Amino acid sequence: MIAVRHIFILVCGFFTILCADPIDGYWQQRVNYEMEITLHDSIRQLTGTTVIKYTNYSPDSLDRIYMHLYPNAFQLGSAKSREYIGYAGRLSRAKYFKDRLEGFTSKIDVHDFSVALPKEGASWIHKIPILDEYKIDDTILEAKLLEKIAPGQTVRIDLNWTHHVGKMVERAGYYAGQYNMAQWYPKMVVYDEKGWHADVFHAEGEFYGEFGDFSVKFDLPEAFIIAASGVVTDGDPGWEAVTVDTSFDFNVWLDIFNSSYVEPDSNARRTVTFSAENVHDFAWVASEDFLYEGGVSSDGETDVHVFYDKERGEDWTKVVLERSIRAIDWLEEKFGNYPYPQITTTDRIKSGGMEYPMLVMNGSEREGLIVHEYGHIYFYGILANNEVDEAWLDEGFTTTQTSHYLMNRYGEHGFDLELDDDYEKFPNRYYPLGHDLHSDQWYAINFMRSGHDENISRSSHLFNNGSAYRLNAYTKPALMLNELKYVLGDSMYYGAMQHYFDKWKLKHVNETRFIDAIEEFVGKELDWFFDPWLHTTRHLDYGITSFKKSSNNTSSWAVELGIKNEGTRYMPLLVETEFEDGSTDRRWWTNHLWRFEDTLRYAVDKKPVAVTLDPDVQTVDLDYRNNTTRMKKRLLFNWPGLWYEPRDERVYRWMPYVYYYADSSDFAPGLTIDRDYGPYESITVRANYALQSNNLYWYVSGWRQPVHILPRTTFYYWGYNRPGVKEYGGEIEKKWNRVYGRTPTHTFAGGFYVQPEYDASRASALGYDTSGKLAIGYFNWNSKLGPLDLSLNGATTLNPVSTWEFNRLTATSTFKYKKTLGMKNKKRSDLNRNFTLHIKQRFTGGKIWAGDLGVPGQEGYNIEGNSSNDMLRKNYLVDQFYGQDSLFLHYHMPGEGNLRGFVGKKERGAEALMATSSEFSIYKNLSKADITLELATFIDAGLFWDREKIEKNDVEELNNYFTKRTLADAGFGLRLNTSIFEKDLYLRLDFPIYIFNGDISETNFNNWLFSFQRSI
Ligand SMILES: [Zn+2]
């Protein structure tokens, strides 16, 4: 079968060359490579000899040629390094450049370079050299020619080169015994109707290649097993020697394999030749630890190869081959016949995933990743877009087909419930499953509303940052295609995609070619759909403004539906009418174009009760609450760590809630209910009834965000009568980043709160002054910048509501730095023998300017920790550990002075402070038990000023009566961190054995305190 197909491809190739292309005016260059490659493993070097036959099918004469030398980007000073050190690309990769690429540099040296035309009629043995001069700048080789390459002419390019293989930073390089060789050879730059695409290799952005045939002969140590684009045409790639018998369990067959495998002589070499036809790139992977499994696609036409590392065999065996076969079957069924003889999945030890013709390098065995990368062999490989300029044409397409595959196969949650990794997790097993499409929609909506949105159609390196690239290349175009499927219907959508595939396979595609192909098949103009999506940041938000129904004389009902476009993009809408008996009617509203308001009138034969626009939530409608006259509701128990955020339901979460005050044996059972909808609103309502005192406690708090205006602005409100205090308040908060998703993040907030009444029996135990009313206006500024966190808080009493009168300004900075030391296992993180050093430092300074009455305890600076309203918000503190006073006296709530050694010592508060806490700890992650164990030492110290609480009538004298205290403590601590039901659980034990209080210093091994919060 495969041999037959080879001939077919050859004939087709020949035919293409001889005949005019069936697409009017379309042409593409052809580049055939013959390479001989030697791998020198001991010095991580490739030497190569390349012969390229470059045929100019363009109508232009070319006076120069260009080549990519991609590995050169991994050097300090390259465009890529400059961009990473700026703000572009992924942070995880930028790190290598910021660390000066120690061990990670790579480079191609070109030794001999010539360009020649054949002597007329003669073979390449007699050549006419036409190279004038060439220069290499960054990743681009530019060669000027003495004679132009005329249309139809073929030139021969010869070069010898050396590739110094660096450790892997992005997709290519050496990593943990593997050579991941992508973009590894001097590669011709594409010349198309827009001219040469001699783009330097940016921090963000992938590739564009010319179609041609590759014949690559490798000479490498025999111990290396090699997988590559193409088929083996000569020699032995080593697969048979590492083929495993998977009819046994993994551990059994690995033992069998290990005992029978004969390690090749370390000096022995293998030579093997791979040939690939009609591809625009060629990649290979070699490893000494590969195992091999092989199969064939369901139509029997495509060989499927799987290579994986021995250490990951347990996860990869059998399933990756099954998933690979399923993925290629799906792609062939949905889009068209796979034109190559084989497809290969390789195990890339470094995480991530990347596609090349006929071969993918995958950092995990996950099915979604296999389907995504195989999808790329269609969208990028066969339909060869320019990934630099139009990344959405491959990433968007393969992202949407992957999500359709997963939902089609596993249901709306989009993953395999049978898999231990996913299903065994408590939330997936017991909590409601989310909707794959909805989470993508929310992800995009949050970005669209952030004020940082950009157009999809933009070169990868021109997006403002990595998040914008990711959202515009992957998420948004995937959702656009999903909307296209919604507008066209499944069968028309796949028909149109097949037409696009059929027309443009093995050619270069772009936006126009794609849209024209779809329009051609559908027979409709679709610019109204694509233009706003691709070239603007317009948003979609339709809403129902009115819903009138009236009974006609006959047994039918007339419906009049007011539809309003609150957004700036247009869409036809599927309208679902629900009847009393639960049945529904669906029809399309298609009066959408260039219209912001409309009335849809229709008749139905039963009494309608509700109407919904886009009932299957297929569009990226920003606000679904106005899409329906009856929003669905879901009531759930509020499990810890529950995360369930559908787009078309309001979620109610309930939980019992109890107060218990031991002193009066007062037990107050109650219930708390949260009602949430996405990023727009949340409200918590709680009521408790105290059986002894007959008090009714209540609590309401919530927040809202506007949909279309004031990006990243949240309005908070609250009011409650809970044990200890009554309070009302409100706050406006605005978040701001220069670069979306990256620090520095600035948060500005302004608000007020009023506390008209206190419960003396409980609040005074927390250090509260309960003798008056408190009303405060405040502002906060907080900024996170890498390891540094800065905040400034200003507060003033709102008089005359407030009994007290004071102003307060507090500044706090915290610094946290982590470094992992020890042995790291590159292949399996669970075998790491390492521990992490953690340095934490906090500084706070502040002053209160107060009237005669001074400042109440809750608003003054507490020496040992936090006495502000945060304490009241912790139930266990208000209830003083339900009567366990001794625990309460040992509890540390961090904040303010933060001198933990003074917990329970009733040290008087202060009106001005300068205090610092430092912690130095080492911690170890016991991954088997899922516990982090931390051992810390700490020093807290501070200067505190205050007026002693003595009767003074003379204000002047009072102000002169400020006293200064110097306090400090030091000790060591233990912390345990784990998660239960996916919820973080933290316990801190501190032993402040040294305490300094003015002149007195004390060493006491009996001091201890505990907390559920981190000290800094
Ligand atoms: Zn991708």
Low-confidence stretches: 1-20
**Average predicted confidence as pLDDT:** 92
| Tally of alpha and pi helices | 20
Basic shape: globular
Number of strands: 49
Q: Helix- and strand-based class?
A: alpha+beta
Binned, the helix content reads 10-25%
- Rg, rounded, reads 34 Å
Portion in strands:
35-45%
Q: State the end-to-end distance.
A: 67 Å
Largest sheet report: 18 strands, mixed
Bound molecules: zinc ion
Describe this structure in words.
By secondary structure, this protein is α+β, with helices and mostly antiparallel strands. Helix content is 19%, strand content 41%. It contains 20 helices and 49 strands. The chain has an 18-stranded mixed β-sheet that branches. Strands 5-4-8-2-1-14-17-16 form an eight-stranded mixed β-sheet. Helix 7 (367-378) crosses helix 8 (392-410) and helix 13 crosses helix 14. The protein is globular, with a radius of gyration of 34 Å. The chain starts with a helix and ends in a 5-residue tail after the last strand. The relative contact order is 0.05.
Précis, in short:
With 1016 residues, this protein is of the alpha+beta class.
Name the descriptors.
1016 residues; alpha+beta; 18-stranded mixed beta sheet; 8-stranded mixed beta sheet; 20 helices; disordered N terminus; binds zinc ion
